[in-house]
Amino acid sequence: MTAPCREWEQSLLEKVAGELDAAAELRVDGHLESCAACRAEAEALRQVLSLAALPPVTDAERRALAGSERAALAAWKRSVRRRRLFAAGAAVFAVAAAALLVVISPGLLRGSGPGPLAQASSSWRVPDVDADWSLASAVGPGGDATDEVSADADDGSDDSVSDDALYAELDAVDPESL
Amino acid sequence: MSDENHDAKSRLRVLAGGAADRERDAELVRAFLVGDEDAFEELWRRHEATVHAVVRRYARSPEDARDLVQRAFIRALSASRRGFPSPSSKPFLFRAWVLRIAANLGKNHARDEARWRTEPLDGSPEAVDGSPAPEDVLLRRERERLVRKAVLELPRRQREVLTLRLDADLSFEEVAEVLGITQNNAKVCFHHATRRLRALVTEATEGDGEAAGRENRP
pTM for this one? Predict the structure, then answer.
């Protein structure tokens, strides 16, 4: 058997699907009268769609559907009630959670104790500048309290006494003897 | 196609979309959402047959199909309640919504339950007269089973287009509207789906011919 005409393929399918307008239907019918291959193709397509189509709605299906809109409406109302209950429950929960937060938050803040900043601010005092300066002068001119402390920690000797003795020894040396 | 089937499809056509129908749907949905139960009944009457036509291919029983219809309506109305479009946005297409939801529900139902139906719910030749079907009727039923099974195994878009066209008798314009594709795209999908099924039937016919030839050989 010869193949159907390619240029008529889509039109044949639309004819079989019942989608052609009157003018297009006439054109396709005119072609089918003269083309056996396209007639066979149209018949084959019709056959395939007929096999794929479902049978008519049965009495059993009609009976099952009868009155089902009432059941659907009842199901809708139930779902609306559930949604409202859920929304109300969520609102109550949110209010309760907010109230609980308000009640317990001061306790939480107290219970957690002061943070590092609070501790630092509570232990801070106005510095006694005069006392600090007197401490610095006690070290002596050119001295450093830190150096002195570290030196003491090293050997416990008195640097000021050692220096005086050294200077005395130097003074005692006769320059001519050098 | 039988006269009864043709009449049923003609009734579906009457309810097909149009600007006035869409506006009426929108009015009914708005009315129902503020408590008018009569509006629900009218919406149901307007679309029940088409929604049922879309889901019955996937249903195992009449009750299955009924449940799918109910769920499709409830979901479509819930979606309407959540996001009723403003007048400035795209037109409100309840019919397209409910049919698309029905198609998805049907497909998911069949997938989840692994029970895609390959035989008619009722009305088979045996059921009509109680006597064994003649050989050609049996052959036809076998072909129907084969092709309907193949329909469910088509690529998703092809299956959707074919079933909306065949089962719900939607025009390609309406199919395109429901699926959110162009009319040309719908036609192309229909074309591919039909070609694929036709190839399957041709193959089956040739297989039957070869088997018959072998049997007749001495």
Answer: 0.67
